[in-house]
């Protein structure tokens, strides 16, 4: 259940925060105020697509946050949260951010997730029905999905889908082997020739790199030999100027003086080591020089080997380094074709088993769909009787075609058939001519399917195209749905809006430069005004308000209407003219004290007040009786305040009231007292 919604800088919404409760929440407002923008925000929160156009002009990003109560969440969502390693106990917070460059990010309980993951969670949490959804109801795929959703057959459909994928994989492999078997002999001959060439080459891992290095060395053999000989002469073979001869003479000179100064004895081992290193280097160089002399015939062998490798690589359309992998691939393909007969027989056996498994699961799914179809037919037929289609029937046909190719949804052909009038044959829903009938049927289907849901259900003006008694029945259906869960409904119908548990009004305002949308939760009396606006025209009249109250009383506890006596303070100024006329006739001041009206001077103030109150009540009652049947009486029945005013003006037609106890004078004084009492505050009169 959605408990909190916050929207910032989305479309024309600057900032909105909304607390939501269980039940039916209705959203009303003038056309274009932004009611459907709230539905768009919920779609975005549930993983819908979004671009930079949703960001309010001048803002950097749009941000939508929703909090969901998990106490009554389907187990499916809790399992999904565990699979995604998202910690959630009592609440799940979803946040969607769209930047003005079109980039979008999503967070679940503060953890960043992919949009696809958000969409999966949104499909479990929110179910949105658009105002044009009835158009998709005529498509076979939509009818199948509705039936599966009504019967809660998603798991069975998933099992059929898995079985279909296994069967399809085996079928493709079988077709591939059968194709190979048709030109088996020619293919075998070519593969054997290719494999024999590669096998005869006997190419080893890393051989090509070694041959390339060797070819470079052989091509520069003369330069290498010259450099080697020069180094040998300078290091060792030169008689006078070689490094070895010089080091040897230095060693002899040091050895003759070590007895004179023992400090030089530490240098002698170093010079001896240098002489040894020079001899070793000379030996390696001599060996390398001798090898160069022996490699004179090797160059042709290396060149021929590399040429053969490159030629075979061109024939197989691979790089020289890919020849070993190509040889393994062709060898495996050859072995596969050679045993194709055996593999094909085994595949055909597996294919038959997979098809049998698929048909078993598909048959079970068909039986479940048939059962769900009967229940859905009965449910929608019942709802049709209250939606202005008395005598109409709805039927879900689930047919199986044994020759049909298996699909991921089974082998069923599902069709919704309907007749809106008794005695008429059932026809496919796609053939229904009346858009109004189709709209009402769509609503019946949506309510029937949604009645089994535990998600937050959103209806965006799905009641368009209906009115009158049908609209009231639609409102009852939605309210009944809200009694079992949470329903948000955007509506223009007073009959629907009056039945909401919670009423939100959407309004749009502008200062000439920017436009903003605001959202207000309405109190009971505010709901009266809003319903009256939806019922009335340009001006909201008193009759529209009374009608609105009548519609709301069955669903909302309204404060009691003020009585005529309670409304008298408001008539003080309105009846000033009548009081002035009475004063002119009697020559008395309307504001005089009771003793000036002929009261007994010995009477107490409380007694005089009591007498005046009784006289006023008697005079008003007589005036109302005298006004009965006049043109003002009809208005008095609608507005008690008008009734009092009419009573005062019609007092001339009423019978004179009896003199009050303890008062002197004729009926005129009594009338004046009544007029004066009418001008006093209600608290003083009581």
Main attributes of the structure:
single chain; six-stranded mixed beta sheet; alpha/beta; six-stranded antiparallel beta sheet; 25 helices
Structural class: alpha/beta
Estimate the strand proportion.
5-15%
Largest sheet: 6 strands, antiparallel
Shape, per Cα inertia axes = elongated
Mean pLDDT: 77
Unreliable sequence segments: 590-686
> Which range best describes the helical content: under 10%, 10-25%, 25-40%, 40-55%, 55-70% or over 70%?
40-55%
Give the strand tally: 15
Count of helical stretches: 25
Distance between the termini: 51 Å
How are the strands of the largest sheet arranged?
2-1-4-5-6-7
The Rg value, from CA coordinates, equals 50 Å
Short description:
Strands 2-1-4-5-6-7 form a six-stranded antiparallel β-sheet, with helices on one face. Strands 8-12-13-3-14-15 form a six-stranded mixed β-sheet.
Notes on the structure:
It is a single chain. 55% of the residues lie in helices and 14% in strands. The chain has 25 helices and 15 strands. It has a 6-stranded antiparallel β-sheet, covered by helices on one side. Strand 5 and strand 6 form a beta hairpin. Helix 22 runs antiparallel to helix 23 (640-649). The protein is elongated.
